[in-house]
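Is zinc ion placement plausible here? Inputs below.
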Amino acid sequence: MSPPAIDWDALARAAHDIRGRAYAPYSGFTVGAALLAEDGRVFVGCNVENASYGLCLCAERSAVAAAVAAGVKRFRAIAVASPGDVAATPCGMCRQVLAEFPPSFPVRCYPERGAAIESDVASLLPGAFGPSVLERGRAKA
Ligand SMILES: O=c1ccn([C@H]2C[C@H](O)[C@@H](CO)O2)c(=O)[nH]1
Ligand SMILES: [Zn+2]
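Reply from A.M.:
I modeled the complex. Tokens:
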């Protein structure tokens, strides 16, 4: 039996709602993410900034960490909500972290106003670095 259709409206709402918990005193750019697990659970995350700017944690990685801490590593979809009228797609670091958990799944990015953008993890990071590359390197060492 195929899994139920992805309820993007519910995911978008969860991503938007969790923006309210973001800690973004430096950029003022609050982001929320809602990650749908294969088992139907939804894990949310928000960005967490730091006075040491390079330590800022994105919403997407925060959602992945929440899921993994709950024992979940298989995902069906992620919705990302950001401010303004242009959808923000995941940064390079988040693309690599999402690609750690194959198979690829759809990514929808929702601005506060305007059109959402839909892509998927594999398209966002073609040629991702992964465990097979590590293995081949080790075998040669
Ligand atoms: O997809 C994105 C893009 C940016 N940010 C965060 C990082 C930083 O806290 C702020 C500005 O870059 O937005 C995310 O959480 N997700
Ligand atoms: Zn990111």
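Short version: The mean pLDDT is 96.
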